[in-house]
Amino acid sequence: MKKLLLIGALALVGTNINAQETRFGVKAGYSMSTIKIDDDQDDLNSRSMDPKHTFYAGAFVEHKLSDKFGLQGEVLYSPLGGKEDVSVSEGGYSFSEKTDVKFGTLLVPVSAKYFITEYFSVSAGASFGFILSAKQKTEVSGNFPEGVGIEAEDGEFDIKDDVKSLNIAPFVGVEYALENGLFFDARYNYGVSNLVKEGSGKITNSFAQVGVGFKFGGN
């Protein structure tokens, strides 16, 4: 009887060891980024900039703890941000201001994964975004009355000193993998960090990602 219990225990341990698997890979894809601005911490005065259509690319490591659960860490780069186009026309005069904000961001997402099937999984975690650069490009045009000036200024400006360096964004996602290592995934990252260094306003950066990748190794 003791021999049978010992054999059963060894078989169980062997199964758990076989279930553990570490794979490395690369991924890239499309990202849609938005910036929400709340000037007075009041929902009535909040607005969202237009989406910025951009990309992401990088590498990851996936470790399966069992057939159903796993952990994943990633290092990605993405130029996130947002756009805004304001136009006013009245009494024969017009004003137009286009703004493009770009946050060059190094993303470090960490997530837990649940494998519904061998090839389909869902995940939840947080993305830690380290903002390496921050720039704002503004274009102003219009037909102004004589003697009327404008506060907006044309050009590209470095706003890194006005923006905090860390953007934390919890996320949820899904992934579908093929037997050959190719996979497709999608996730939504909800920015919770206030990126404004000074003042009473609040700026947050959220983004959606859809992409493709490849896992090396494995069965």
From TrEMBL:
Pfam families: OMP_b-brl_2 (PF13568). It comes from the Bacteria. Residues 1-19 form the signal peptide. InterPro entries: Beta-barrel_OMP_2, OMP/PagP_B-barrel. Residues 19-195 form the Outer membrane protein beta-barrel domain. This is Outer membrane protein with beta-barrel domain. SUPFAM superfamilies: OMPA-like. It comes from Chryseobacterium daecheongense. Keywords: Signal.
